[in-house]
Amino acid sequence: MPVDDDELTFYTTEEVAEILRTTPRNITAWIREGKLHAVKVGKFYRISEKDLKEFLRK
């Protein structure tokens, strides 16, 4: 099964905050509220490009 490139690109909360012109704290809050899907790697969140695009469509 082929893997989409959007599923292989991951962003930090800081990078997503910069893209969306908000703060990393807001990104973390949206993740905890279930508004933005992310995976936790160690103690840090990573957001896939696919999940970011889906969030922006809402």
Short characterization:
Residues 10-58 form the Helix-turn-helix domain. By secondary structure, the protein is α+β, with helices and mostly antiparallel strands.
How is the secondary structure organized here?
Layout (H helix, E strand, L loop, with lengths): L9 E3 H8 L3 H9 L6 E3 L2 E5 H9 L1
Antiparallel strand pairs: 1-3, 2-3
Folded structure, characterized:
- This protein has 58 residues and is α+β, with helices and mostly antiparallel strands.
- It has one domain (5-57): Multidrug-efflux Transporter Regulator, Chain: A, Domain 2 (Orthogonal Bundle), CATH 1.10.1660.
- The protein has helices at residues 13-20, 24-32, 49-57, and strands at 10-12, 39-41, 44-48.
- It has a 3-stranded antiparallel β-sheet with strand order 1-3-2.
- Helix 1 crosses helix 2 (24-32).
- It is globular, with a radius of gyration of 11 Å.
- The mean pLDDT is 93.
Key words describing this protein structure:
about 60 residues; alpha+beta; Multidrug-efflux Transporter Regulator, Chain: A, Domain 2; 3-stranded antiparallel β-sheet; 3 helices; 3 strands; about 45% helix; globular
Number of domains: 1
The number of distinct helices, counting runs of at least 4 residues, comes to 3
Question: Total strand count, please?
Answer: 3
* Overall helicity: 40-55%
Structural class: alpha+beta
CATH topology, anyone? Multidrug-efflux Transporter Regulator, Chain: A, Domain 2
Shape: globular
The CATH architecture category equals Orthogonal Bundle
Cα end-to-end separation = 28 Å
Give the C-alpha Rg. Answer: 11 Å
Q: What does the average pLDDT come to? A: 93
Oligomer: single chain
Order of helices and strands: EHHEEH
Organism: Methanoculleus frigidifontis
InterPro entries: DNA-bd_dom_put_sf, HTH_17, SinI_DNA-bd
Protein name: Helix-turn-helix domain-containing protein
